[in-house]
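Worked Example 4.2. Consider the chain below.
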Amino acid sequence: MKQAVAICTASPFMALVIRRGLARSSHLEPSGEHRSAGAALAAVRQTAGLVIVDAELFADGTDGGALGQALGARRAPSIVVDARGRGVPDGVAASPAVVVVRGRTSGELDLETIEAEILPAVGSALRRRSRSASGMTGRKRLSS
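Applying the procedure from the previous section yields the following structure tokens:
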């Protein structure tokens, strides 16, 4: 059975990079793409499986703020992609269900790192779900 993955980014190019990274696993299947903070917010609230959210969506007005709050409160596995290294809201980064993947150089779009790190981040996010379901805890941040 394949793990469904919702991809939330306004950038079709970022979505392509994420899909390319996910394609290295036969167990993952993109289930949909959400191009705005409002659509991403709906996906975060309605999707029980893994969601991957572009950090750029947090800057998208009211919906971006609500997206950050919903993601921070979410218990299901989640990945935030901060390709430009601009930062992730504290409430999101502190969530035990969220794995953050960052570009190496602040302010520069680092798609090579994102493509290379997205699959390990998926593994980390899914292991966190397994640990929390069994009552174990532990935090790890993927970043360069």
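The chain is about 40% helix and 20% strand. The two ends are 32 Å apart (CA to CA). Compare this with Example 4.1 before moving on.
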